[in-house]
Each structure stands twice: as C-alpha cells, then as structure tokens.
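SAMPLE LOG
Freezer: B-3
Tube label: C17
Construct: single chain, 618 aa
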Amino acid sequence: MAIDLKWKELPAVQRRFLFYSAAATIVFFLLLLRLWYLQVIIYADLQERSTSNRTRVLSLDAPRGPIFDRNGALLVDNRPAFRISVMRQEVEDRSLLFERLSPLLDTEISELEGRWQEGQRFPIYRPVPLAEDVSREIMERVQEHGIDLPGVLVEVRPVRDYLEHGSAAHLIGYLGEVTEAELQSEDFNQYRGGDFVGKTALERTFDPYLRGDKGQRLVEVDVQGKLLRQLQVEPSSPGNKIYLTLDRELQRAADEAFGSQSGAAIALDVKTGEVLAMASRPTFNPALFAKGIAGDEWLALAKDDRHPLQNKVISGQYPPGSTFKMIVALAALREGITDINRSIDCEGDFVVGGSRYRCWKKKGHGPTDLKKALRESCDVWFYRVGLELGIDKLSAAAKEFGLGAPVGYPLPGERSGLIPSQEWKHKHYNKSWYAGETVITSIGQGFVLATPMQLVVMMAAIANEGKVLKPQVVRQVEDWEGNLLLQSEREIVRQISYSEKNWKLVKDGLLAVVNAPHGTGHAAHLEDVLVAGKTGTSQVVRRKSDEEEELDEDGEVPYRFRPHAMFVAYAPAEEPEIAVAVVVEHGQSGGRAAGPVAKQIIQRYMELKGQSLQGEEE
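STRUCTURE (predicted):
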C-alpha cells in the first residue's frame, strides 16, 4: 500500500520514464538471452547450416578399370563426358527453367520432365541428371546462359570408352543404370541411384574389380547455386586393370572374316584353354549403353531377328551336324565296332524300320572306310556305325567331350546344349527310344544341340588327345601399383581315355578333310600350315523331299530355312596350338561358308606367331 502511494506521488513524466526503462531492460535482457542461445547453445548447428547455404559437396565418379588384351593392347578405357544436372531445391519455377533449357540442349521439354521425375528417388541434395554426354558446344551454350538457369550444373564424369566398338562386345558386356532392386543388395552398397554398373558379361562379373572408389569435392556457390570456387577435393580412385586372354589382332581377323554374315566363331588355345578370339555376329556397340541407351536404339537391337544382343558363342544352340561324326568314330573304335579296315558300302541311302535315311551325296560314296567317311562326310557310314554303337554309348562318349552340359565358361549366359539318351527321352516325353533316332543322332541331328563353345572345347580335346579344358577369358587382374589380385590357371576338367592308335586314326581323317582330294573342308586349306578339321551342315527344319522343297521367287530356299554352316578345326596338325569353331547361320555349306572364316582366323594366328618370334629374335 505504501509503495502504491509512493508511485502515485511521482510526477507523470517520471513514472513514464521508469516504465519504459524497465521495458527496455527486459527486452535487452531477452535479446542477450537469445544471442547467448544462438552463439553458445546452437552455435555448431548454425555454423553447419550457414556453411551448407554457401557450399556443396559434389560426388566424383570413379573411372572404371581399363581392360587390355593378352599383349597389353588397350580395349576399353574411359573418357571425360559433360553432364547437365540440376539441384532441385534451387529451382523455383521448373516450367520456366525447362522452357529455357530445352532449346539449349536440343531436347524436348517432356524428356526433361521425365528426367526430373526419375530424379525424385534421389536425395534432395543429389543433382538430377538432365542430359548425359553432351557435346562441348552444348556445354558452353548452357554455361553462357547460366544466369538464367538457377540450379543447373555442368559436371564432368568418366564414361566408358570401347575402343574396338562392337568387337568382342559379348565377352566384355555393357553398363546400365543401377536398379532399385540392385541398390537393396549388399553387392551394390557402394552405388547410389543414377550410377552405372556392369550389366552383362565381364563388366558384370568383374564389377567389384572394375569399379573404383568415389571421390568428392567441396565447392562454394552463390545464392543462385552457381559455382564460385572449389574449396576441397578428395580425388576418386580408378578401378583395377584387367588383362584378357584375347588377342586384339586375332579378334579383328575373326570379325572381318564374318563380314555381314550372322553366327559365331571362337578360337581356343588347345594347351591352356584360353579364349584367343570370340565373335558373335551381328554385334552391338556397348558405348550406346555407357551413356544411357535411348528407347529407339534399344528397340532396334531387341527386335532385330538376327539377335545382336545374344552371345551366340555360349548361348546359341545348334544341331552340330557332321562335326559330331568324329565323336561317333572315336566311340566306335573304342568299342571295337569299327577299325581301319572296315568298309561300308554307301549307295546313297540307309533303311531302318521301313524309314529311308539319305546320304547328302545322292549317288552315294561307294565302299567307304573310316578315313574316307570322315574325309567326305559319308552319312551312311555313320548311320550304320552309330546304330551298332547304340544311343547310350554314343551319349556317354559325347558327354565326355563336354557336350550336353556347360563347359565352365566363367561369365554368365552359358547354355548346356543337349545330348539325348533313352533315359532322357523317357523322362521328357515318356516314350521309348527308336532306332531311327539313333541313326539321325549319329550325324549330329535330331535332338542333339551344341554351342560353338562346346564344339571348340571338343575340338581342342581331340587336338590334345583327351584333355578337356575349362575355357579362360581373364589372364590376370592388377591394381595400379602392379600387385596381382587374380590370375587364371589352366584347368583340366577331365582326361578322356582312348588308345594312341585310335586318336591317330581319327586325326588322320580330320587332316584329310582339309588337305586330301575330295575333302569337304578344302576351303580351309593353307599352303604353309597343316589344318585338320571337320565340316558340318546343320538342318534347321525337317528335311523335305526334292518335290516338297519350298523355294522363294528366285528359286532358292528361303533364308530362314537354309541350314547352318559349321566348321571345326585345329592347327598346326602335327603340333596343335589353336582350335577354332565357326557357325555361319543359314550359310548352307560348312565347307564353303564356315571353312573360309576358320581359315582366315588360323592364317592370322600363324602370321601373328611369326611376327612374335621375329620380334624375339631381334
């Protein structure tokens, strides 16, 4: 009460002064309290937020490891590429931005919008790619208009560069953007949305070796998000170096030998199992995938009826035709069904159970022994011998050589082919095996299927007299300091047992195929090198009679009905080093279509060997 009376006794001016002074003191106290809170309590958080408003942490993609051939020739590397990206949080008017950016990138606004929507799955601080691998002209155009393009960044990243274009593309493989499913896997924990990973073949299987470690850089930007300066860099580390078993020059020879034909060819070192060349035709350019393949480009590849994306060497399954006959001959020799002296009269056909099976030579081959049967590929000789051998013994012999099961190709996609037996037919068709089926199996038709990879492994096993080798495609993997991370070694899957005499009888027949008069493989003959081989014609449809044969308007069998041409070989015959298998799809004649392809590969191999020896002498 006393205080109240004293306050009332004060002059009005003094009371107002004290009131405002007290209010000012309280406000000032609150400001000090707030300042203390900002500068002491949450100082660290504010500093971080302040820094983030003027800096950006940008990821630096790691260059993938280079790929070399067996001699150190560079096959796959990386090149710098410009990417136009955008920081979403810095864009206020997306429509206006895309309207300005579209003519600069020569890209439809709808495509930019699609890229933006795809980027919604990225964290907000991640740049969203709008255009990949743009030209320098476009990059400079975007930079010139940078003031009108808030949030737009020009990034430089490494892009896979396939120096041989489509050569060996099916062995090397291609890249693609990492999927959501892959990101959920521990194998892809180093990747983020938008990154590219190996999708097929070597790029996929050896991705852990090829991918490097990402780096990052800290940059300062202005209020519009434009780069002012680089503050700090943590460089990326490139992936490891891979050396293949391929020989670049031999690979080129295989590609050139095929020309525009479809099919597959493979060359194998008969001593080590190393793949020296591998061509699947037609091929594709992996560079299309390295930057993100366009929809129309993908459809063109996917809808091509010649299947350029398929690795026909390991997944193309063909009836082996007469290339299968050497297996029949070896099995019959081992079982004592035939020998060097047995002769069978071929009159052009063979009758079993009321069915007539023709020889490819309508007039027949006359009296035919083992060597002549191989040299001239007499069907009737193999009809009779195969029937006497029986399907189960024939099946067992074929499987010894690696037919009917994957041969152990170290990259994905290998198919098993098919070698039938009585048990197999009963299991799959619940029917008994017929004698006529043994007859056609004996010339590599009917149910029999084989891949070119299986055929070359078979041929290498004959060349080295029984060693079935596992194919190798990678010689070694090294880091950048030269440390060996992985090295392949020769692996013998099995050793097949045949007498030295039997090996010689069959190998003499294969030598005659290429080098003797009337040999079906004479087109593969070389003057300075003895080549041993076997032709094959693989029917793709049931063989019709002459009267029923369907012809096109030019009087020819339509392309899709023409038989595949096949040829298998090894050289030099006296001391084998290289085995080759060739399939020319719808090539009709193994001797005329596939033989010359094999010849060019072998010839180039010998030339390269001569150059290498000459270089060592010098």
